Amino acid sequence: xxxxxxxxxxxxxxxxxDILADVVPWLETFCKPVEAKAGGDVDFWVRDGxxxxxxxxxxxxxxxxxxxxxxEIPAEDEDYSAFSRSPVQGLIVGAGCSGSVNxxxxxxxxxxxxxxxxxxxxxxxAAG
Length: 128
What we know:
Layout: E1 5-10, H1 16-27, E2 31-36, E3 42-46, E4 65-70, E5 89-95, H2 100-111, E6 124-127
Antiparallel strand pairs: 1-5, 1-6, 2-3, 3-4, 4-5
């Protein structure tokens, strides 16, 4: 059973390999293991919740998380008129299983995202 997921919209195109080059070293500072998958996705297990602002965190209660490219963004049937520009690419941060901490962590991961060209303030708008 899959858990919660958050969709992130990017408003400037970027190669997924370049995104991973920014994100994986950051994940490795508080996750173990961090595994690249054959399809390009990354699986990881959070081991240090304090890096995400979580004080009462038990790694044993947490399952797999993943980062993947959202092949459905931009969607042709979506109305993006509320935004100053339409998204050109999407990412998904998700949990591999359900449970209260697995619902909290994707949000914390998204808010604590690493500094990079894909996360530079106004040009990154979260959706989900």
